[in-house]
Amino acid sequence: MNILVIGRGGREHAIARQFNESDAVDTVYAAPGNDGMRKDAELVAIDEMDFAALADFAEVKAIDFTFVGPEQPLSEGIVDFFEERGLRIFGPSKAAAQIEASKSFAKELMNDYNIPTAGYATFTDLAEALAYIRKHGAPLVIKADGLAAGKGVVVAMTDAEAEAAATDMLESNRFAEAGSMIVVEEFLEGEEFSFMSFVWDGVIHPMVISQDHKRAYDDDEGPNTGGMGAYSPVPHIPDTVVAETYETVVKPAVSAMAQEGAPFNGILYTGVIWTAAGPKVIEFNARFGDPETQVVLPRMTTDFARFMQSLFEGQPLPLQWSDEAVVGVVVAAEGYPGTVAHGALVPEIPLQGGAGITYAGVKEQGGALTAAGGRVLLVSARGPSIEEAQVNAYRQLAACEWPGFFYRKDIGWRAISKKV
Ligand code: AMP
Ligand code: GLY
Prior knowledge:
By secondary structure, the chain is α+β, with helices and mostly antiparallel strands. It contains 13 helices and 23 strands. α7 runs antiparallel to α8. The chain binds adenosine monophosphate and glycine. Glycine (GLY) binds next to loops.
């Protein structure tokens, strides 16, 4: 098989590597990929949004299937474009990608099909939003309706913060078009987890769950980021809660999309909070999570490329997972999620004991990798438990100095301090 992976982050590196490990695979191409991925994929200098050039490439190279990493090409219709050209691609159509690209679409869907989620209201008018905030009172969560790279959510613990966030989005156009409509949501309390599933032809293949760390700094302090680390499994979320989420959220969401005339194919990512009243949805994404993918895929023991092929051929192989724990720690450039300086030399980590690195914001300069983005790389390590995987991950990081970079020192803490 020849496979084309679209995207350039750590998630796409993990996807490419997992495909490359299959003996059924000849070449994995990544468009555009990043310089840290060269061992696992052949880079193709085509932008994620240049659908015509990507489809031409897939045709010329006889690509067996294309796998889309990020949300932007999905929400702009890359899948529709490839399918019109008769090319095999994995991901949702533009219509189905709305489940991520429009929070109000997702909220209405959940409302109409009784999928448990936080209570909410949508606004385009600031005065109405402010009146609602004053009436309901903090804590409230303010969300830009459109795509905002994981940064369009403000968890407001006071009315003043909620009002400022709404004003920022609706009046100061903080997120441009993506923030011209906002969702104001009830604050949910509980443990979070990420539940991703392969969906194809109405059939759902759930993956093992994971937990992200959204805040920039230790103890979950600082601003929200794209994610600073993750781990899998999540031992303090009981299997019964995962099963309940599958029955009350994932299954009804997939059938709701089909009933709405926008059947969902691809990776359905469900962000869940396990509240006192049961699991509730905080968001749907239409693609793999980053950094969740980097800790979930290493646990997949089914051959990934063969699994994908079996989906396309309508004879899905069973998905199997190792019992091992995986902890992944993101190394970011200083200043992330704000502005970051480029160019710091990325240390070469002498990896030991089954640890791995996925690269994201890096660029090769004079034969060495240098920082070229916010999240630069992720170190993942395995172990028989989260504790051991965590020790192993931090041992790799401690082998180098990190001038110009930072990473959280507590990835996995909820699993270790909260046991059931
Ligand atoms: P999102 O970008 O939608 O994943 O939201 C970012 C983070 O905000 C989530 O990971 C949660 O920690 C938090 N969050 C989002 N919605 C809610 C909610 N309704 N209640 C509490 N926390 C939330
Ligand atoms: N880690 C959360 C996301 O990918 O949206």
